[in-house]
Amino acid sequence: MTSQGSSYARFRRAIDAGQPAKALDAASELPQVSLADALALCLLLAARDRDRYEPAARRWLERFAGEGGKSLHEILMAGAALAELGRMPGSEVARDTLEQLVE
Question: In a 3-state reduction of DSSP, which class is residue 88?
Answer without folding.
Answer: coil
